[in-house]
Structure formats: C-alpha cells, structure tokens
Target: Myb/SANT-like DNA-binding domain-containing protein
Amino acid sequence: MERGGGRHWTDDEVRALLCVWADRRVRERLKCTLRNKSIFQEMARQMQRNFGVIRNWKQCRTKYKNLKYDYKTAKSAHAVGGSGAGGPGKYMKFFDEVEAILLDRGLDNGTMEMQKRLYDEEMGAGRLQTPASESEVVIEIDDGMYSVCSKYSSFVFKG
Model:
C-alpha cells in the first residue's frame, strides 16, 4: 500500500498545484466543503492531465494545507518584524501566488492568470517559462542561457 509522503515537491509540481487551485470552481468548492477528498482527486487528475505531474489526492491535500500554513506563518512573521523586514515573500516561496488564491485577487480567469503569473516570474529570473513542445529538448546552461534543440532543425539559442 502506497503512503502519502515520500518525495519532496519540486517547484514545477508546486506551480502545477497552484495553477489547478487557482481555478475559480476549485476555490469555491474548497471554501464550502469539509469533505473534500473528491476535490483533491480531481485536482490530482488535472495536474496529471494538464501538467504531467503525478501526485495522489492525499499528497495534493497535504501540500495545499502546508502552503496555507506557510502563508499564514510568513504573514505573521512579517507583521511581527515590521515593514522594514522585507516582504512576507522573504519567508515563503510562492507567497504572492498563494495570497492571490486565498484572497481571490486578480484571478478572474483562474488557471490562465496563475500560469501567466508563475511563468512571468520565471522569465524575470532568466529561465525558460513555457514548457517545451514534445518535439523539443531544452538544455539549460549554468549562466541562465538555454538552448532548444528541435528534432527537425538545428539548435536555437535564446537568452
């Protein structure tokens, strides 16, 4: 029998969870029910179907709860530290995204807006933002440059 724990979540897996959680219907269902196994089962299916992330419903529920807890902890730490201590994001990765979800801020189009938010952040860091198509292989180089090699053409360098 498989247990719920085990593997740490990668940033890409967390991004996938955030994108699914950002969907207005998912947020509304999570707000109005305590028996939410079926919601997390659907979230796990969407993560696999849309992002290729394989996690079971228990793992999704645990990560969801941990993200909410970490958000509240970071918010409290920032409040205690005052405004000169840096933003709450200093204490938690994906703070702004979780806050947007929890406060229903700027997510009228849910998943699409969350994807744009998450991938714009990646672009600002100089990394690839959109997943490569099935016909491409992405090779990331240490200095932040990357190249895309298509099955049908030569290397394309981007920076």
Notes: The helical segments are 11-21, 24-31, 37-51, 57-81, 95-102, 111-124.
